[in-house]
Design a protein that fits this description.
The chain is of the alpha+beta class. It has a domain at 172-336. It has 14 helices and 5 strands. The protein has a 5-stranded mixed sheet, sandwiched between helices. Strand 3 and strand 4 (247-254) form a beta hairpin. It is elongated and about 95 Å long. It binds zinc ion. Zinc ion (ZN) binds next to loops.
Length: 343
């Protein structure tokens, strides 16, 4: 797997043998299977106690079962024990801990669906395991005597989290591109569902229209909302305005670090509170709801995502999975590009 770039040399090995739904790679461990067979066969021989099996048990010190020996061989680790071992590691353990703050099934759907190339999957696992050769990794883990300031912004230590979602120098280029691709998937789903567009384009060629308006609907993309009172946050990513029901939704999208999933989600909701009140008053609406669409840069999905989307009747798993896939592909692209930049 390492030779074919499917498993990074320093990535977690125990993770390989965990089920994909738990964030692992789903491989069978031959040694563990062998141990299980030994234990099961020993049990069979010892419990049967027919004359022939009894004799075999008394003399066998030659077969792998070693029946003459009464000490039971060690058990293969259970899934739970493997998971605890993974989580207990200082570096590799960060991702499984963060996984608990997200929606378990949806956050690991990129692994269970198997829709990525092995190399991309391995690269994302290496990013999540924190073993990418950033300057901070070289300094703190490999103990190289180097300055670990980011090669781009020179302000913060160059950690993998800094590259995937914290570097201000690439915020308006690389992160924005990743953000707008996700926004495009959601926007296109909304406009096709509302029959404002007939056919669906591939998400990477979809062009976001700033304003789409009919007698019943208004869909804004990245438009500044004018209000009488000055409001600091006045530009939600998507505004979905239902003229008939007199209701609107502000949808904001973000791809923060794994550690900031819940924090970013709360921030987005409070950020647009004032604007939602103003908008509601201007258009005399019954209700304005803020929906926060958070997928972390490594693909963790908020526990609330389905509930949020059900409010706009878009509790659509394939759409959520496509957004996650797009984020993962973009994060891999950003990290590869970043590491190729020479100072
Ligand atoms: Zn930087």
């Amino acid at each position: 797997m390492t030779a074919n770039r499917i498993h990074h040399t320093n990535a977690s090995v125990i993770r390989l043998y965990l089920p994909r739904r738990s964030g692992g790679r789903g491989l069978l461990n031959l040694e563990h299977l062998w141990k299980k067979q030994i234990i099961n066969l020993r049990k069979y021989f010892k419990e049967k106690q027919t004359p022939l099996l009894k004799v075999i048990c008394e003399i066998d010190s030659y077969s792998p079962l070693k029946l003459k020996n009464n000490d039971e061989p060690t058990q293969a680790p259970t899934i739970r024990e493997k998971r605890e071992e993974w989580q207990g590691k200082a570096l590799h353990g960060k991702y499984p801990k963060a996984l608990d703050s997200g929606h378990q099934t949806e956050s690991t759907s990129w692994l269970t669906s198997g829709s990525l190339y092995g190399e991309t999957e391995g690269f994302m696992c290496a990013i999540q395991d924190g073993v990418i050769s950033t300057k901070n990794y070289k300094k703190c883990i490999l103990k190289e005597d180097i300055d670990d300031h980011c090669r781009m912004c020179k302000t913060a230590p160059e950690t993998i989290q800094h590259i995937t979602s914290g570097c201000p120098t690439i915020a308006h280029t690389e992160y924005l591109k990743r953000h707008n691709l996700t926004a495009g998937i959601l926007h296109q789903k909304i406009v096709t569902k509302l029959k404002l567009q007939e056919s669906e384009d591939p998400y990477y060629t979809y062009v976001l229209q700033p304003v789409i308006e009919t007698d019943s609907w208004k869909v804004y993309w990245d438009i500044t909302i004018r209000t009488d009172k000055t409001v600091a946050a006045n530009r939600p990513d998507i505004v979905l305005h239902d003229k008939q029901r007199k209701e609107a939704f502000f949808i904001d999208i973000a791809h923060p670090n794994d550690n900031n999933l819940e924090k970013t989600e709360r921030e987005k909701i409070t950020k647009y509170f004032e604007l939602s009140q103003e908008y509601k008053a201007i258009y005399k609406l019954n209700k304005v709801t803020v929906l926060s669409n958070i997928i972390t840069s490594t693909g963790l999905i908020s526990k609330n995502m389905e509930t949020y989307f059900s409010k706009i009747h878009l509790d659509n798993k394939p759409m959520i999975r496509l957004m996650q896939k797009s984020v993962i592909l973009e994060t891999c692209r950003i990290v590869r590009k970043f590491l190729n930049i020479q100072e």
